[in-house]
């Protein structure tokens, strides 16, 4: 039976919740979908997690969504903490400001004078 609630409940799968028994319990308790965080997982592992979620949903005869949270780019350009101030250096010179082009795609840094 489909839920009539407008608010949906997503449970993030992790080491404590990625067992068939726990997933079935979560579904019985009202979970509408599972979120899989790909930030700390290899792509090859995804299939197994999706199969577990689908199996648990079938066992409970419940429609359950599976949402995959893809890790975005991680830019590491060096330390941002200048002199232990807890913020980027605000000294003289240009500031590096990330921006997006009109199409919404990352376009790289823009330099502007302080």
Sum this structure up briefly:
With 114 residues, this protein is of the alpha/beta class.
Features:
114 residues; alpha/beta; three-stranded parallel sheet; two-stranded antiparallel sheet; globular; disordered C terminus
Account of the 3D structure:
This protein is α/β, with parallel strands linked by helices. It has a domain at 10-69. The chain has helices spanning 20-28, 43-59; strands at residues 10-12, 33-37, 65-69, 95-100, 106-112. The chain has a three-stranded parallel beta sheet, covered by helices on one side. A two-stranded antiparallel ribbon has the order 4-5. Helix 1 crosses helix 2 (43-59). Mean pLDDT is 76; it is low at 107-114.
Strand content: 15-25%
Net shape: globular
Largest sheet: 3 strands, parallel
How would you spell out the order of helices and strands? EHEHEEE
Distance between the termini: 59 Å
Q: What order do the helices and strands come in, and which of them pair?
A:
Blueprint (H helix, E strand, L loop, with lengths): L9 E3 L7 H9 L4 E5 L5 H17 L5 E5 L25 E6 L5 E7 L2
Parallel strand pairs: 1-2, 2-3
Antiparallel strand pairs: 4-5
Helix pairs in contact: 1-2
């Amino acid at each position: 039976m489909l839920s009539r609630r407008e608010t949906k409940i997503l449970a993030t799968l992790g080491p404590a919740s990625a067992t068939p028994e726990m997933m079935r319990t979560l579904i019985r308790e009202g979970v509408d979908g599972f979120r899989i965080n790909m930030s700390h997982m290899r792509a090859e592992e995804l299939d197994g997690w999706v199969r577990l979620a689908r199996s648990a949903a079938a066992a409970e005869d419940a429609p359950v969504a599976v949402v995959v949270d893809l890790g975005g780019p991680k830019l590491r350009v060096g330390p941002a903490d200048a002199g232990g101030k807890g913020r980027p250096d605000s000294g003289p010179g240009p500031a590096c400001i990330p921006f997006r082009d009109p199409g919404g795609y990352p376009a790289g840094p823009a330099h502007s004078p302080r």
